[in-house]
Amino acid sequence: MFTRTKAFELLQALSSHPIDLTHPGALTPERIGSYSIEALGFHLLYGTERVNKEVIEALCQLAKESHALEKMRAMQAGEVLNRIEGYESENRSVLHTAMRDVFDERQTAPAAKDASDRASRELHKLKKFLEETDGYTDLIQIGIGGSDLGPRALCIALQAFHKPHKKIHFISNVDPDDANAVLKNVDPKKTLVVIVSKSGTTLETLTNEEFVRERFKATGVDPKRHFIAVTGEKSPMDDPSRYLASFYMWDFVGGRYSATSMVGAVMLAFSLGYDAFEEVLKGAHEMDVHAREAEPHHNLPLLSALFGIWNRNFLKLPTVAVIPYSQALLRFPAHLQQLDMESNGKRIDKEGHPCPFSTGPVIWGEPGTNGQHSFYQLIHQGTDPIPLEFIGFRKSQYPKDLEIQHTTSQEKLLSNLFAQSLALAIGQKSENPNKFFPGNRPNRILLADQLTPKTLGALLAFYEHKVAFQGFIWNINSFDQEGVQLGKVLAGKILGLFSASKAPGKPTSFPLGEAYLKYL
Amino acid sequence: MFTRTKAFELLQALSSHPIDLTHPGALTPERIGSYSIEALGFHLLYGTERVNKEVIEALCQLAKESHALEKMRAMQAGEVLNRIEGYESENRSVLHTAMRDVFDERQTAPAAKDASDRASRELHKLKKFLEETDGYTDLIQIGIGGSDLGPRALCIALQAFHKPHKKIHFISNVDPDDANAVLKNVDPKKTLVVIVSKSGTTLETLTNEEFVRERFKATGVDPKRHFIAVTGEKSPMDDPSRYLASFYMWDFVGGRYSATSMVGAVMLAFSLGYDAFEEVLKGAHEMDVHAREAEPHHNLPLLSALFGIWNRNFLKLPTVAVIPYSQALLRFPAHLQQLDMESNGKRIDKEGHPCPFSTGPVIWGEPGTNGQHSFYQLIHQGTDPIPLEFIGFRKSQYPKDLEIQHTTSQEKLLSNLFAQSLALAIGQKSENPNKFFPGNRPNRILLADQLTPKTLGALLAFYEHKVAFQGFIWNINSFDQEGVQLGKVLAGKILGLFSASKAPGKPTSFPLGEAYLKYL
What we know:
The structure is a homodimer. By secondary structure, chain A is α/β, with parallel strands linked by helices. Among the domains of chain A are: 96-280, Glucose-6-phosphate isomerase like protein, domain 1 (Rossmann fold), CATH 3.40.50.10490; 483-517, no CATH class. In chain A, 43% of the residues lie in helices and 12% in strands. The first copy, chain A, is built from 17 helices and 13 strands. In chain A, strands 1-2-13-10-8-9 form a six-stranded mixed sheet, sandwiched between helices. A five-stranded parallel sheet of chain A has the order 4-3-5-6-7, sandwiched between helices. In chain A, strands 11-12 form a two-stranded antiparallel ribbon. In chain A, helix 3 (53-65) packs across helix 11. The longest helix of chain A is centred in the N-terminal third of the chain and has 23 residues, at 110-132. Chains A and B meet through helix 2, helix 7, helix 8, helix 12 and strand 9 of A and helix 2, helix 7, helix 8, helix 12 and strand 9 of B.
């Protein structure tokens, strides 16, 4: 499908001679000014991508030929997009957007309406619960994957807005050192523990729950009065005899898309207060509406997805660095790594045929300016070009700043962001080969005013939709994750070997596993 | 040089038909048992790499033809390896190994001996300083790049061994939110502040220093009695009138190799106590001796470097994921990202010729089991194979663990590590294309007993030497970083635009920069 569009052929022809940004006169102030779109307070500046008007036209044509916008609308309306035709698959709607469709202008399609009604009910439950339980000072979230990376990234991003004396902790890894390190620092009597598992059966999460329950009991604290379940309705964890409260999630919200469901809501509303948390939802909802309504040329996540496809499939670049010039977004790339790589790291299309092209790239990144003193060396002068997605903000979160030599720290930060974008594009000629910079490193900047709860919600949704658009255009299923199963099966066999050594009568024959255990 | 070795030709021939690990009978318990070496308590298990005995022989021949061991010995003896022949370059020795060559069996070459004598002097100063200043509860380290990522990774890795009531904080980013977030949580009266900059001129670090000085003064605390300099002897920061103490670093220790110099020492000795910190140095020193003495077949970092080259230059895989199955190593991949990508992200060889082959790959990673619920989807079922380097430990750091269904959390962690290594190699056949795993994802495991200060020191040095060996074999300079300069120059120009707008009389003509400023 993707490779059989007319736009694909056109783009392939165009990719044999992409614009040379190092050429004198190629990157002008006019180009920087006109290669830019704006919506919801976000500017996307893409003059430093290796595209010209022809390429952009062809990319937008690709979006049209692959019905990207129609699929986004269908997704938000609750159509069953999570499936592989002709094979056993999850067969589900994909309705994370309904989790924040709780304001005006709601979707009216029945599946979407039902989902947003459910979301509203949980939000009301949560608001009431928090009013009734204001005495707690700490909250431990136990979850892994989508129940950890997204919430953790948002929590760190909004630390500047946390209420004083509300502290958040996370336990995710089955490594016992993870739980032990957190438990050193909390007083069980004042601590809520939120267990997050949609199925109610996640090995790491249930293990850590038991670990923490035992520790609470050992200090004379009754877990029943401190533990909260975030889980599927009727899952094994949906059990009022064991939890102070249960909040629900559903199979139409995938783990990596669940940060605005109760998975992120309980922790964020506890730390920020309910009203500030609602701003996160508002920001995400506005981006949802924009993503399904704006035409390709003016659609922030769609245009961003198209540049990604240009760099991946036509300029043949296998990785993407996401670099926020904001220390608060320290763990946001780790969330995006999951979101993108778990969604689009697929080798078959929606009809089950192997894809004859590259799908999801490796996504990685760390905040700037830090990265400039680290891996930027390779980005500037390594043998492989790496496309970059920069994120920046005009203002800092905290009001305090200091002017040194006529510029504030925030101005220094922004100067570095703009300078890197230019340096990567234009490079530098030199007689000394060690001072030669090849340039033509494609990059773009997403610029907003300030990282607030609302902006963060919009930024989160921007990336969710960028990823979904790329999946729509590649015609792959961005919403399942069959690739995690095989490891689970083999881990179970090796666990069988460990337990058989202690509880005879459970033999497991797995010679490859036994070969590893000899090293223990 | 690299492409003109006999081994290169041989390896290229062998790479046309690498072993198929998915073939029944290819990956046997015997292979797992015999494709393994052990030294200093570390096992390197490489049965799941796509190599056979012929490939390993050819790789070891490559090491010999490129004089990898001789160069490692020359480096540790203090030869001037940081240079490009025929062009202006740094022209320095590379003596981070001397920073821990402070025990028996010292190097006797004059340059190395002089460097280790200097290191000993600083260590004695540090020990005495800490005895005299025991009252402080908190330490803020201000630095960026090598003065931040390595120390931060080590600090987090050893949190289980920190003295109670000694807390460490880091400020790195010029983003004012970074400093503000840290300053919220410390009491200046009880806090030491360590400023780390070899040149004494790093923009971010000096800016943050002033930021924190102002805040200390505002609370009535005299910075002179709290601030410590870690800097080059005679740098602008080597100024007793402004600092309580100065500890020295030298130009023969690169930032990304400086974690065992005073750059990491002050913070680690403060938090762990001096004796436990010395264990880090001992572990690193033992690995230094191993790296220069063990023959290629039995040399942990050299063999690891060779597998890296096999995957990069012969199997043509552009990235490497480093996955520690240890939550304590959460930020270790970020350190390795800098170490490897800044060292080997180079496009010219040591004679200034463009390299006609790929050098340093993109290095990225997050701890397991967390990654299994995130980007592993792409690693198992994406379109591009990604080589993995796993790190594991037999025991957890904290003694407390809990047995659930006959296995402890630590056993669950190790089961997952071994299971993933196997699953990635052997894959899975299936009629359902979505349950098909192609396998042949090359990976290896570095397994040690427990993550202690000593093991961590050895692990740090293992990676320093793996990176250096790859650079030696590629014949590139792994010790400079010209690629950071261009960004600094352009950032300076844009900063000029900001300050000109406030302090007229400093005009800067930079239309590209002005084009960006219009978005502010």
